[in-house]
UniProtKB/TrEMBL annotation:
Record protein name field: SpoIIE family protein phosphatase
Domain of life of the organism encoding this protein: Bacteria
PANTHER family: STAGE II SPORULATION PROTEIN E, STAGE II SPORULATION PROTEIN E-RELATED
Xref: InterPro entries: Bact_Sigma-Reg, PPM-type-like_dom_sf, PPM-type_phosphatase-like_dom
A Pfam family matched in the record: SpoIIE
UniProt keyword annotations, A-Z: Hydrolase
Ranges of residues in domain PPM-type phosphatase: 172-402
Amino acid sequence: MTTETVKYQRKELELKALLEITQAINENKTSSVLLNIFKFTCLVHLNIRSLLLYVVDQDGYRQNISHGIKGAVPEIIPLDKVNDNKVTGELNIVVEEGYSFDELETYLPVYHKEKMLAILFLMKKDETAELDLDFTQALTNILVVALENKRFARKQLEQERLKREVEIASNVQRMLFPANLPQNGKLKAKVTYIPHSTVGGDYYDLIQKSDDEVFFCIADVSGKGMPAALLMSNFQAALRTLLRSSSDLRMIVEQLNYTIFENTAGERFITFFLGCYNFKTRELSYVNAGHNPPILCWEGEMRSELLEAGTTILGAFESLPFLEIGKRSHLKGFGIHMYTDGLTENFNDKDEEYGEERLWKFVKSQLCVDPDDFHKEFFREMEAFSNGVDRMDDITLMSLRFQ
């Protein structure tokens, strides 16, 4: 067989190999199929006996193909252990003790623009076998760029999925909040809700059960995103279902706790405050389940107090270890300010926390003001305190004024 015939046959095999892998790429075959085609091509058509292919990912250069390797080689080579020079083609790899690439006589770095995407180590079948390194490198480049494109496409799909998830969670959350708040002679309510991101973990509600009874609550669920929004959605549905059949705060809170624990197996929890005011008896009943204590303002006596009686956070235990129903009687004109911890855990440029003491001091200076005016003045003070520092959490402030 003449030299020209051998060259012709080799070129024919190379063309066949190129056709196979490009056809697989065009047919959008999976990464594993592409790797298998490349491996088969190298072993059958390109005079290669042993090969080792590392492809870059976020952790380093990860082993994708290993064939005919007798010694120990690493599964992954950290990025900081690889030094390459594209101009000279030099490659220096630092491996841990016990690993070696010595049995592989040739390496081919694979670049896309200025970034090295892969490293191909190989050994030819025998001393007389001839390797076309330029073609092998070109074929490897085609494979690796296809793998990189697939990885990028998966990343884009994941980002789109997360974006849709956030949009759904945001819509779910918006539907949880009451569409309208009372603004009548008996009760005026004002809420300021500032989510830290598109989907927050705060929840508030106000339910006028009858002419005499009004229920109001505020909550903060652990976690963010879709899981938090779904948990809060289930929580709101359970709360409203329970309120339709009962006004017993003890029973309602115990059932809510059981529902959360059953749904999350104790892995998530909710801080929660639930209050009820009866206009006829002028009595306030409440339960504080591990939430920041709301501030009750006695307008007639010009004093304030914290509403702390209750129990621990909901969802941490199958049954609540203790439960106390707080009560206040003979109430006439009074106000309640409920908030989540994002309000008091705001920091300024001196790394100082706003804190509960500052909030309480502000409330004492604004005991009998209209809820709208209270919110306007409070957030003006908060903005001045923060001095441009970004918020770290959701902020919810719900103010009620009973007259």
